[in-house]
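pasting for ref
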Amino acid sequence: MATLLHHIQPWMQKSIAESEARMERRMEGMMDRKVQAVNKRLDAFELRILERSVPAINLSALQVDLDCLQIDVDAILAAPSVDPQVAPTALADDTVLDALFSGTAEEGLASTHAKGKRHSSHRTEEEKAKKR
């Protein structure tokens, strides 16, 4: 039996090596086919992209638009900032203060009420004046 194994062992090793080589070739062939399929798809995709029409860009018109935009930006940045509410607010404040200290505010208040009706503070002052 040992003699038989001694003769079969080299044959089995050779058979295993051949089987591994065949398997490796199959794997390489399968990988090559997969790589070719991917490359075909990439080529088809690239052709579709290249076939798309590229919109024409008018560079001179774009340059004109950019120049106009730059002029507008320069004008906005150069414009002085004026606070338009400073003067009207000051005039309104003066008018209110003048009305309060000149006594016209009380006259205006009295004329807006109906005749015979006075504010409660006015009645008490008038009643006090009559009692004296």
